[in-house]
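Quick one: structure for this chain?
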Amino acid sequence: MSVSRPVFDAHFHVVDARFPLYENNGYLPDEFTVGDYRDRTTTLNITGGAVVSGSFQRFDQTYLLDALRQLGPRFVGVTQIPHDLPDREIVELADQGVRAVRFNLRRGGSAGLEHLDHLARRVHDLAGMHTELYVDARDLPGLADTLAALPAVSIDHLGLHADGLPELLALVERGIKVKATGFGRIVLDPAQAVRAILEVDPTALMVGTDLPSTRARRPFADADLELVADAAGEHLDAVLHDNAVAFYLR
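Got it. Here's what it folds into:
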């Protein structure tokens, strides 16, 4: 992949010890600041991205808003909020660059599944926010109708598992977006999944580094972007940049 091609990093984390961090199942991540992110991605042509809250940050917004101020206007936030967060605070978050609410169904730290439908609709109606899910695609059959009926949804890490790929592709047919991220944590062939998703909907796929790859079997490598580039073919610019820009910035 030519480094001259712009990349919108649709999924990465900032871990800043100046702000609250919470152990999750005994795990607390190492620090990975905005400065660390910039240093790690110096050789990549990152033109913007989405900072995603992790389970270890729960409902803290202070780290995220600080990170967005440092990163600049082409970076947005994906946060976790309690289901009963007042409308006024949701709008305030949107005004400061938060574009989505995350439901971490795998690790926790977010609002629960029982609040998914109502909260997803509320944040979209109030502030145009969409919904993101960290979920094993094998669990999608029971969620499919709910997700497909929501106004804007994405699923992290290619749905994690090969056995769930048919369910994931069925949702792509119904308008769901997917992030090609976290190759060090998935149990499937990422190139095969990328090609299958693009065959269903070339606008559905977004790429991200998943830095700093907390709890993954291996961290992000630049070669992961090369793999996506090879699999994306004629859709390369859309997958690296355009699809995510359309999802987050327009």
